[in-house]
């Protein structure tokens, strides 16, 4: 990848930039923020760290939207993070106009760029970005499930004592309290997780995964999660930049998959150089489908609320 731009030089954008620059996922990395001096300073810091790691990625920052020019991929992390006691949906009225403004800049300066939305509420804002872009769902999608899956793998490792390297997990649905951790698809070393844990332990992991972001927010008080989201972004960027054809949970515009159309939901997708090249539709049992439908109904309500603003 030649050029990647991150809009939003907050903690999440900075955490993602550090990995992207160090691993040389692009030749040119730009941090853009309304606080231009902050973006410049963070970019310089990230660049110096990357150089020391042996990377030739050039990193710079600022506030001018024209810096988006010729971007291959734009990652949107800008917006107001939620505070303790808030849901992701509580910040919609603030972050929606920010997203609208960013999409206007992208359409003007980088209309051919692929767009990865990270800002919350990510399902709703991904749908909004897609609707404003004029692009197909292959070029506009969101990050949530990679982070949620990482959290669940962490809790599984803690509960079982097994190496996280051997754990596979999967989370579908909206990025919030109605997300759908699919325990039937979780395993340790290819052995189903239910072989090791009781139903009560499994339910404990499900609930903690759903509250994973809130748990960190409540403990940190003055800030939300940033390091794990940064890693999740970098994984998706790596899949695109290096054309890896990776199956990753992604907030995608559904076109009939899982019985839904015209909403953005977290589902397993194939990410490659072309962007989102395929949505994978898994067979769900009755309970799993009911949980997915409940989550989808919440996203539909959230989109309706957004359209009413």
TrEMBL record:
The protein's Enzyme Commission number: 1.1.1.37
Pfam families linked: Ldh_1_C, Ldh_1_N
Signal peptide: none
Record's catalysed reaction(s): (S)-malate + NAD(+) = oxaloacetate + NADH + H(+)
Domain Lactate/malate dehydrogenase N-terminal, chain residue ranges per copy: 3-142
Residues bound to NAD(+): 8-13, 33, 95, 118-120
Cited function: Catalyzes the reversible oxidation of malate to oxaloacetate.
Family: Belongs to the LDH/MDH superfamily. MDH type 3 family.
Official protein name in the record: Malate dehydrogenase
Source organism of this protein record: Metapseudomonas boanensis
């Amino acid at each position: 990848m030649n050029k990647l731009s991150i809009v939003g030089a907050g903690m999440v954008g900075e955490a993602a930039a550090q990995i992207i620059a160090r691993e040389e996922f692009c030749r040119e990395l730009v941090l853009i923020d309304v606080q231009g001096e902050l973006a410049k300073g963070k970019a310089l810091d990230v660049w110096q760290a990357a150089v020391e790691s042996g990377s030739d990625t050039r990193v710079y920052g600022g506030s001018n939207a024209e810096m988006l020019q010729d971007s291959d991929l734009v990652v949107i992390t800008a917006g107001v993070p939620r505070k303790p006691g808030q849901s992701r949906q509580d910040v919609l009225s603030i972050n929606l106009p920010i997203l609208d403004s960013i999409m206007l800049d992208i359409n003007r300066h980088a209309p051919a760029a692929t767009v990865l939305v990270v800002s919350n509420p990510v399902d709703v804002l991904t749908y909004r970005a897609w609707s404003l872009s004029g692009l197909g769902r292959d070029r506009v999608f969101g990050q949530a499930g990679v982070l949620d899956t990482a959290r669940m793998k962490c809790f599984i490792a803690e509960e079982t004592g097994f190496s996280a390297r051997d754990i596979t997990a999967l989370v579908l649905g909206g990025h919030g309290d109605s997300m759908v951790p699919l325990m039937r698809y979780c395993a340790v070393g290819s052995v189903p997780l239910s072989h090791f844990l009781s139903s009560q332990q499994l339910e404990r992991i499900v609930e903690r995964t759903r509250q994973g972001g809130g748990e960190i927010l409540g403990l940190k008080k003055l800030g939300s999660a940033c390091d794990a989201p940064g890693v999740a972004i970098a994984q998706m960027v790596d899949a695109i930049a290096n054309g890896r054809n990776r199956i990753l949970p992604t907030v995608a515009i559904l076109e009939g998959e899982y019985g839904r159309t015209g909403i953005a939901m977290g589902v397993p997708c194939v990410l490659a150089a072309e962007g989102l090249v395929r949505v994978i539709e898994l067979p769900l049992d009755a309970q799993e489908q009911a949980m997915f439908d409940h989550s989808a109904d919440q996203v539909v309500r959230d989109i309706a609320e957004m359209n009413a603003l």
